[in-house]
Amino acid sequence: MSEKLSSPIDEQTPEAASKTPHPGGRPRDPEKHQAILRAARKVFFTKGLGSAAIEEIAQRAGVSKVTIYNRFGDKPTLFEAVVKQQSDSMSEMLIGKRVEGADLKTRLNGFGEALLAFLFDPDHVSMERILAQDLAEHPGLAHRFFAVGPGQCRERLANVLAEAAKRGELTIDNPIEGAEDLLSLWKGFADLEFRLHARAALEQGEIAERVARGTDKFLQLYQTTG
């Protein structure tokens, strides 16, 4: 259920408020749908949720405001769709067609590299700082965005680990805790240092090395032996 707010976060026109949004299922016009999500990502990541204007998103996407409201209903739902798309994109390295037939280590490394590349994207860090205040004021929204973003990534990683355990590749009692262990091994303190301006962003080569090292440590801990 969409959280109704009195702040600019819940930006909605009176005309659109009476319409039923269509955020789920396959969009009728995929190209237009993707144009809206690309424009929304750019505006949200630059200005945050509260300051982002639907007018600017519509202008960047080359559509009308009514089109956006008809498809997504309100600004939080549009932002939720942007977060989910980012999560889905990273998860392709873990469960998508491109990694069908790949071994567990390859899949974990691919996902870890995609995740760290996103975490060290300066636009993401800027958006995270701006967004923190918005979500602190509206905890219901925070839960929604966590569920489709970080929460979904953790769940999908845990599912892959659970499947590996069923195949006898891993010995792991709690896949969620195992996923959190692996995420910590990949990130270490590097993302915190970056967000606090204590270090520069990791280069792609550094990301690959950090992820490979973390995956190796994880497999040493959880891989089935004997």
From TrEMBL:
<dbReference type="InterPro" id="IPR009057">
    <property type="entry name" value="Homeodomain-like_sf"/>
</dbReference>
<dbReference type="Pfam" id="PF00440">
    <property type="entry name" value="TetR_N"/>
</dbReference>
<dbReference type="InterPro" id="IPR036271">
    <property type="entry name" value="Tet_transcr_reg_TetR-rel_C_sf"/>
</dbReference>
<feature type="domain" description="HTH tetR-type">
    <location>
        <begin position="30"/>
        <end position="90"/>
    </location>
</feature>
<dbReference type="InterPro" id="IPR001647">
    <property type="entry name" value="HTH_TetR"/>
</dbReference>
<dbReference type="Pfam" id="PF14246">
    <property type="entry name" value="TetR_C_7"/>
</dbReference>
<dbReference type="GO" id="GO:0003700">
    <property type="term" value="F:DNA-binding transcription factor activity"/>
</dbReference>
<keyword id="KW-0804">Transcription</keyword>
<feature type="DNA-binding region" description="H-T-H motif">
    <location>
        <begin position="53"/>
        <end position="72"/>
    </location>
</feature>
<keyword id="KW-0238">DNA-binding</keyword>
<keyword id="KW-0805">Transcription regulation</keyword>
<dbReference type="GO" id="GO:0000976">
    <property type="term" value="F:transcription cis-regulatory region binding"/>
</dbReference>
<feature type="region of interest" description="Disordered">
    <location>
        <begin position="1"/>
        <end position="31"/>
    </location>
</feature>
<protein>
    <submittedName>
        <fullName>TetR/AcrR family transcriptional regulator</fullName>
    </submittedName>
</protein>
<dbReference type="InterPro" id="IPR050109">
    <property type="entry name" value="HTH-type_TetR-like_transc_reg"/>
</dbReference>
<dbReference type="InterPro" id="IPR039536">
    <property type="entry name" value="TetR_C_Proteobacteria"/>
</dbReference>
